[in-house]
Amino acid sequence: MKKWILFLISLLTASYLYAAAGPILPHSDENDSREFQNVYIELKKIGTEVNFSATGSPTYQGTKTNDSACTGCIGEYKYSWVNAVSGSGGASAYSDLTSLTLTAGDWDVQVSATMRNNGSGWSPASNAATGCGSTTHSGNDGTGVTEGLNFVSLQPYAAFGSFSYQNITTPTIQYSVATSSTAYLKIYNGPYTGGPPLYYAVIRARRVR
C-alpha cells in the first residue's frame, strides 16, 4: 500500500510539472523558437526590455514614454552648458569652458558653441581663427585637438565685429573609456581687440553601449 501511495504521488507530481512547464522537446529549430518565445514571456513578466525573435536574435525595445535612460544603460544622456562665458586663456589661446564625466563604456560626444563678439574685433590680415571641440585633456593648450575630427575652426569674414554671433558645431566623435574619464569643452580664440568674445556652448554625450 505504501508503495502505491508513493507511486501515485510521483505520478501526480510529474503530471503537474508537465502541465506547468510543458513537454521537454527534442532539439530542432522550431522547438528552439518555442523556447525563446517562452523565455521572452518570462522576461516580460519580470519587466525587462529584452526581446527575442523567432530565430533567437535579441532585440532591445526603446522606451514607451518620456523617461530618461538609467545611469549605465544604453541611451544614457548627459550634457554641460555654459552661458556667456569668456575663455580663461585669453587671446591666441585655448580654453576649457566646461566638462563632462564619462563613466566606463562607449559614448558619442558633440560640442556646439555660439560666439558673441561682445565688442571684440579680429582683422582678417592676422589670419585669426576661432574654434571649439572636445578632448580628454585639460588645460589651455591644444593637446588632443585634431582639426576636423574633434575640433572645428572658422575664420571670420572681414572683421569679427561685423557679426554679432557666429556658430560652430563639431562632428560626433566616439569616446571609448575603460574607466571614468572627463571630456572637456575646449575653445580657441585667435588674436582679437576689445571684447573678450563670449560663448554660449554645450558639450553633450550619449552612451551607445
Provide structural commentary.
By secondary structure, this protein is α+β, with helices and mostly antiparallel strands. The chain folds into two domains: 27-61, no CATH class; 77-207, Jelly Rolls, CATH 2.60.120. The chain is built from two helices and eleven strands; from the N terminus they run ααβββββββββββ. The strands form three sheets. Strands 3, 5, 8, 9 and 11 form a five-stranded antiparallel β-sheet that branches. Strands 4-10-6-7 form a four-stranded antiparallel β-sheet, with no helix packed on it. β1 and β2 form a beta hairpin. The protein is elongated and about 60 Å long.
**What is the total domain count?**
2
- Look up the CATH topology of the largest domain: Jelly Rolls
C-alpha Rg, in Å? Answer: 29 Å
Strand percentage lies at 35-45%
End-to-end Cα distance: 63 Å
Q: Structural class of the helix and strand makeup?
A: alpha+beta
Largest sheet: 5 strands, antiparallel
Total number of helices: 2
Summarize model confidence as the mean pLDDT: 74
The total beta strand count reads 11
Q: In terms of per-residue confidence, which ranges show pLDDT below 50 for 5 or more consecutive residues? A: 4-9, 16-21, 40-48
| Overall CATH architecture of the largest domain | Sandwich
